[in-house]
Design goal:
The protein has 339 residues and is of the alpha/beta class. The chain folds into two domains: 159 residues, Medium-chain alcohol dehydrogenases, catalytic domain (Quinone Oxidoreductase, Chain A, domain 1, Alpha-Beta Complex), CATH 3.90.180; 149 residues, Rossmann fold (3-Layer(aba) Sandwich). Strands 3, 4, 5, 6, 7, 14 and 15 form a seven-stranded mixed β-sheet that branches. Strands 10-9-8-11-12-13 form a six-stranded parallel β-sheet, sandwiched between helices. A two-stranded antiparallel sheet has the order 1-2. It is globular. The two termini are 19 Å apart. The mean pLDDT is 97. It binds NADP nicotinamide-adenine-dinucleotide phosphate (NAP). The site of NADP nicotinamide-adenine-dinucleotide phosphate (NAP) has 30 residues, from helix 3, helix 4 and helix 10. NADP nicotinamide-adenine-dinucleotide phosphate binds next to helix 3, helix 4 and helix 10.
């Protein structure tokens, strides 16, 4: 049987904000799995902000994408041919061969990148790319292991209506925190407040972000979950409580800068308030995945945490989905539905 796939190649390295011209859809033939391989039809693929860092041609904590080659990223799909005893036709898997419809790859290579079977009876397949996957574990690791969150803490979350931020907000609320969220539209703020966030601030329209945070958290912030950087970080530092912790997860406001921006002008507060700032990468917290999934299951069953998704249809719209991460024109986890 002849198989074909449409793949998304990196066509060129973006200069500042990415555009659709940086992506190219190509048709490829796929050879069905031989010994040690599986062939997978992807149903969902993820677009994530970290992929912007892989489009620079420069090695960071992940290897750069290569111009003229297919991009990679999280995806879930169904096995349609198997040459490996651990996997059968019909198994659903999560893996890192995204940005393509169909592919054949070596199982050992894929396992090294996180290939695993998923159970879709209780949790929908696409949630393994969001709340039950990498973004969810990022939220958990950053809040509890890096931010050292404790019940009763006041937590400030930037990018609060995003894939990671929305999970941070709900976890902190479920565990007795007071939560203040920063988001880029009134609709996102309304959604946050409808999910228990004590105070949601539209950082684009508020006159003075630092004062708005001070009003929402008069006793200061114990944990700042940093997704955005720039003005949000400066406003957060102004409002940190004594011995506060900043879990530096990402700084999306900086990812498309052509030149580095000056840092916050108020870093002296780190000394005066005895603050801790720690960056982290979720791949170094995989050992907490089982602990997180157990907690997530309990919270989901109790109706205390919900997944929010924005979906683009078809591989032709994968580039558009990616650009929506930077325009902010989406809510919760941004996904592409491939079948
Ligand atoms: N450390 C790790 O291991 C790890 C893992 C996963 C993600 N991350 C990081 O976590 C952060 C959130 O990731 P995510 O997957 O949850 O993405 P996301 O929040 O679902 O999507 C990105 C959001 O960022 C906001 N944004 C975009 N450009 C902005 C700008 N210039 N200034 C302020 N806000 C901007 C937009 O929301 P608004 O409309 O609210 O502005 C947008 O919806 C990112 O920085 C990402 O790199 C880190």
């Amino acid at each position: 049987m002849s198989l074909t796939s449409r793949n998304v190649n990196l066509k060129s390295i973006p200069d500042g904000m990415p555009t659709l011209d940086n992506f190219e859809i190509v048709n490829v033939d796929v050879v069905p799995a031989k010994d040690g391989e599986i062939t997978v039809r992807n149903h969902w693929m993820s677009v994530d902000p970290y992929m912007r860092g892989r489009m620079t041609g420069i090695k960071s904590y992940a290897d750069p994408f290569v111009v003229g080659e297919v991009m990679t990223g999280g995806a879930v799909g169904e096995i349609i041919h198997s040459g490996h005893p651990d996997f059968a036709v019909g198994d659903q898997v999560v893996h890192m061969n995204g940005w393509r419809e169909v592919f054949t790859d070596n199982v050992d290579t894929m396992k090294a990148m996180g290939l695993r079977k998923i159970d879709t009876r209780m949790i929908p397949a696409q949630a393994y790319l969001g709340i039950a996957g990498m973004p969810g574990l990022t939220a958990y690791a950053g809040l509890y292991k890096v931010g050292e969150f404790e019940p009763g803490n006041t937590v400030l979350v930037s990018g609060a209506a995003g894939a990671v931020g929305s999970v941070v907000c709900q976890l902190a609320k479920a565990d007795g925190g007071k939560v203040i969220g920063l988001a880029g539209s009134d609709d996102k703020c309304k959604w946050l407040e409808s999910h228990g966030v004590d105070s949601a601030i539209n950082y684009k329209t508020t006159e003075n972000l630092s004062k708005s945070i001070a009003k929402a958290a008069p006793n200061g912030i114990d944990v700042y979950f940093e997704n955005v950087g720039g003005a949000a970080l400066e406003a957060a530092i102004n409002n940190m409580a004594m011995f506060g912790r900043i879990a530096a997860c990402g700084m999306i406001s900086q990812y498309n800068n052509a030149a580095p921006e000056p840092g916050p002008s108020n870093l002296v507060n780190i000394v005066a308030k005895s603050l801790k700032i720690q960056g982290f990468i979720v791949t170094n917290y995989q050992n907490y995945a089982a602990e997180y999934v157990t907690k997530l299951g309990q919270l989901m069953a109790a109706g205390k945490i919900k997944s929010e998704e924005t979906i683009e249809d078809g591989i032709d719209n994968a580039g558009t989905a990616f650009l929506r991460l930077f325009s902010g024109d989406k809510q919760g986890k941004m996904l592409v539905k491939l079948t």
